[in-house]
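Hello,

Our lab assistant flagged a job as stuck in the queue for most of the afternoon. It eventually completed. Since we weren't sure the result was trustworthy after the delay, we are filing this so someone can double-check. Below is the sequence as submitted and the structure that was eventually returned. Let us know if re-running is recommended.
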Amino acid sequence: MYPVSDLDVDGDGKYITTKFIPAELNGERVNLIVEFNEETGKDSVLGAESIYDVDTESKGLIEVKAGDRIQLLCDHYSEDGTVKDEYTLGSSFTVGSDGLKVYSLKVDNDGCVFTYRLTDLYGAFHWLPLKSH
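-- returned structure --
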């Protein structure tokens, strides 16, 4: 997930943060646009933005509908920080009848549980055991 904007519209310290997630929507390369809204307390997927090979910005967003197929993507960076390649993250999934929703994981002061996924250059991966913090 990559940041797009972080705005405090009315200066009250509550932000509307927009981010994008690289993905394929029905086989087309897109960025899913997600909004985290502290003003309303509602987080949502605004839609998908088309990606073009030329230096052109897309106009408007593509609606993400029930039955759409989504494959999440990750960037692979070289040592100098440039994007070297993209690879898929997990299996693709189909958007259900309730649409695409954003859920936030709330962590209390007792800590959280996490793991790491190690992936080699051939695409083989291994999940490390869960750890508590």
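-- support follow-up --
The delay was a queue issue, not a problem with the job. The result is valid. The mean pLDDT is 83. The radius of gyration is 17 Å.
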